[in-house]
């Protein structure tokens, strides 16, 4: 299995970079942003969307599944 690059909490990423880092599609990242699960910024007048590494890590922590298999 290929090792994935880690998410730097201090970095700013594009939607495409986040999709690659998480191993999901760009449309999944767009849905996470639209639903409010993933915080992102779009400065006025720009089409580009910026996502802080801390936003991704917070999303992963707040959506963590707490079950009996967590400790495995």
Give the helices and strands, then pairings.
Elements: E1 12-13, H1 15-22, H2 26-34, E2 51-52, H3 53-62
Antiparallel strand pairs: 1-2
Helix pairs in contact: 1-2
Structure description:
- Residues 13-62 form the Helix-turn-helix domain.
- This is DNA binding domain protein, excisionase family.
- InterPro entries: DNA-bd_dom_put_sf, HTH_17, SinI_DNA-bd.
- GO terms for molecular function: DNA binding.
- It comes from Chloroflexus aggregans (strain MD-66 / DSM 9485).
- By secondary structure, the protein is mainly alpha-helical.
- It has a domain at 13-62.
- Helix content is 38%, strand content 6%.
- The chain is built from three helices and two strands, in the order βααβα.
- The chain has helices at 15-22, 26-34, 53-62, and strands spanning 12-13, 51-52.
- It has a two-stranded antiparallel ribbon with strand order 1-2.
- Helix 1 packs across helix 2 (26-34).
- It is globular.
- The mean pLDDT is 90.
Features of this protein?
2 strands, SinI_DNA-bd, mainly alpha, two-stranded antiparallel sheet
